Amino acid sequence: MRRLNRKKTLNLMKELDAFPKVPESYVETSASGGTVSLIAFTTIAFLTIMEFTVYRDTWMKYEYEVDKDFTSKLRINIDITVAMRCQYVGADVLDLAETMVASADGLIYEPVVFDLSPQQKEWQRMLQLIQSRLQEEHSLQDVIFKSAFKSASTALPPRAIPHPRGHAHLAALVSHESYNFSHRIDHLSFGELIPGIINPLDGTEKIASDHNQMFQYFITIVPTKLHTYKISAETHQFSVTERERVINHAAGSHGVSGIFMKYDISSLMVTVTEEHMPFWQFLVRLCGIIGGIFSTTGILHGFGRFVAEVIFCRFRLRSYRSVSVPLPDGHTSNHLPLITDNSTH
Predict the structure, then answer these.
(1) pLDDT in tens, 167-188
(2) For residues 131 and 203, is the Cβ–Cβ distance under 8 A?
(3) Residue 201, φ and ψ in degrees, nearest 5
(4) What are phi and psi of 296, to 5 degrees?
(5) Helix or strand or coil: residue 51?
(6) Count of H helices and E strands in the chain?
(7) Where is the Endoplasmic reticulum vesicle transporter N-terminal domain (predicted)?
(8) Is 264 in contact with 238 (CB distance < 8 Å)?
(9) How far apart are CA 227 and CA 239, in angstroms?
(10) Could you read off the pLDDT of 296-321 as tens digits, one per residue?
(11) Is 88 helix (H, G, I), strand (E, B) or coil?
(12) Rounded mean pLDDT of the chain?
């Protein structure tokens, strides 16, 4: 009884078989089919390698939301070289009401030579080249995010602004002939300092054409949360607009000569997350590639074979119609004679 039930079950499963096996004796192979199969296998191998490359790669996902953090303080990381003596340079942070909100106690005096060495000039040239490419190809920023902490620091050895303590305009203290606000921004960033990240003003160099010259940088800061497979940090991106002019009160160009960085913090926050293709999605895409190529090549091969048979059949019909067969009564027949197994030639 159990064997009978097993046989019924097996027979039922055989009837439900959606992949019936055809005996090899009923299978006909051809040179065209072998050629199409070779092309199909080669295409499958190529696309599989390409798909695996896509699977190994990652991409950055950007999400935007309102920044609800109103209590934290903004950290400023700056490394700038000014072509003036240390005792002539001062720095401070002011709010919109021109009130000092932070002193420059965190900055360090470091007397340096403004001119760069050949090695430092090469560093600056490469950094400026990267900045120009970043302005043209914004997708490179994703590469920089993913390479954070992998590369060394993008700035020269620490060179902070020398300054006296407190806020002071030097116009009344130093002769205008001593002014030289030529400067080089080796590094400027906001928030957590992340090695390997290139900021918009890194490597910027400005040469003053006059003693009384004003350099202005209008900066818009965007709070950013960065989550990659290597790091997780809270930092800030920013965009900048530059402006410079010579101070000449007689010509109506008023102001105070110096270097000014005016920044505004955006109300939006950006979350940048590095994502990777799931393994199951890779398998689904791979199955789609294999099945799609087999189906497509099969259809194309069948259609091509059908067209070839139609063309060859017409050619054969024309050949048969042109054959002349002599008859016993002296007439000629253009019809093809019936050929049987007992026919003689």
Answers:
(1) 444 444 556 667 888 999 988 8
(2) yes
(3) -100, 0
(4) -65, -45
(5) helix
(6) 5, 12
(7) 13-98
(8) no
(9) 21
(10) 888 888 888 788 777 777 666 666 55
(11) helix
(12) 75
